Amino acid sequence: MASLSDLFHFEAGREAAVPGDVREVSNYVRAMEHGLQRLSELPLSTRLVRELHERLLRGVRGEHYTPGEFRTSQNWIGSPGCTLDEATFVPPPPDEMPALLSDWERFLHAPSRFPPLIECALMHYQFEAIHPFLDGNGRVGRLLITLYLVARRHLSQPLLYLSAFFEAHRDEYYERLLAISQRGDWEGWLDFFLSGVAEQSRDAVKRSRRIIDLQEDYRAQLYAAKAPASAIRLIDIFFQSPVVTIPMAASAIGVTYAAAASALNRLARAELVRELGPFKRGRTFFAEELVRRIEEDI
Fold it and tell me: For the domain that residue 45 is a member of, what is the CATH number?
């Protein structure tokens, strides 16, 4: 599985040095950014869902399954190579999808009847049950959780990452969704979903504290060493993007290329960042300890 470190190396232009699935992670980040930007001009809708799907499948697994288009043929879920008759779950046929997607979209914009997290859990199940694409439904469905809560103003930033919880409890996740379709077990699904929200929220708070503590420690080190103001300002940029090139640094803190290079070299000598080497985007520097603290198990 691609790591956060792999993603940043990929973004720095080291494509040959990272696993193949890192592009999927990069696409997920790009789709999230697109969704957040579009929410300022377009409500959460089937139109936005198609846009997200097209971006998620660019150049990755499933790209030949009509990215950005709802399916026009039957799909099913089951063990690899199984037939329709052997499937664990068979979503609605294509001719029923328009009405079901309209119902789903109306649910998104109807006056609230339940607490927001309950509505979010219902929304996610509805989408997964319809399974409107030939591939990539899970990726879209998980992305929609965050976008739904942001759109409803229950999250100011996309800090709730339920995908990690679903992946860690993959079998139970599918079992809970299937149990609704087979037995109407909504209580089991809601309990599972809310447990995931609680666990991932605690995780996000702890990781945020780690990051803040490290940032304060780095700034204290630089002040104690009487580092130039440009280096102190620049270390904060790494906490926005752990991979920084010289042009990025120059633009971010408003200095010349030479001044930015000097500040980055100062941070590297202090072993706060590490130079990765000259890649596609030129000399590239990486906040390795920051990424390690983000990735480290809690």
Answer: 1.10.3290.10
Q: Which residues does 284 contact at the CB level (< 8 Å), separation at least 6?
A: 12, 13, 243, 244, 245, 275, 276, 277, 278
CA neighbor of 286 nearest in space, from 271, 272, 274, 297: 274
Mean residue pLDDT across the chain: 91
| Rounded distance between C-alpha atoms, residue 38 and residue 257, angstroms | 33
- Is residue 75 assigned to a domain? yes
Beginning with the edge strand found earlier in the chain, give each strand of the sheet holding 243-245 in spatial order.
243-245, 282-286, 274-279
pTM: 0.87
**In 10 A of CB 225, how many CB atoms?**
12
The domain in which residue 238 lies consists of 213-295
Encode burial over 184-218: b for 16+ CB neighbours within 10 A, e otherwise.
Answer: ebeebbbebbeebbeebeebeeebeebeeebeeeb
Q: Please give the pLDDT value at position 96.
A: 97
Q: Is the pLDDT of residue 99 over 60?
A: yes
Asked whether the beta carbons of 195 and 131 are under 8 A apart, the reply is no
160 exposure class (CB count in 10 Å sphere: 0-12, 13-18, 19+): buried
Name the maximum alpha-carbon separation found in the chain: 71
Distance CA 277, CA 12 (A): 10
pLDDT digits 0-9 by tens, 24-75 = 888 999 999 999 999 999 999 999 999 999 999 998 887 888 999 999 999 9
The neighbouring-strand residues paired with 245 are 284
In one letter, which amino acid is 190?
L
The verdict on 244 and 147 lying in the same domain is no
Amino acid 259: pLDDT: 94
Residues 6+ apart with CB under 8 A from 33: none
